[in-house]
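Progress against Task 2.4 (sequence-to-structure conversion) is shown through the following example record, which the project officer requested during the mid-term review.
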Amino acid sequence: MRARRSLDRGHAAVPPVPGQTPTPLLLRFTRYGIPGLAVLAGIIAMCFGSETSLIGGAGLIGAGISTWLISWLYRVGVEGDRSRETEERARRYFERHGRWPGP
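Structure tokens generated for the chain above:
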């Protein structure tokens, strides 16, 4: 919404993409803490458990790594969407003003 309003007013630059604020603590914990805790639990299970715990520990490590990887892949996809939105706003600005917006 804010991008359209600033384009309508004739601002020279495309406004920054929303969501580029510092990452909140809970989000960082969700991205890195939960997978890290799963990997740590797997390592502990493998070190102090029985022979059967080796399989369970390996499963926990795999779950932690896959959780982190899914989170990373999601962020890569969202970043691509943001880039396309920024490009689209710049193209609309170019159509309206006849020049590409500055950085």
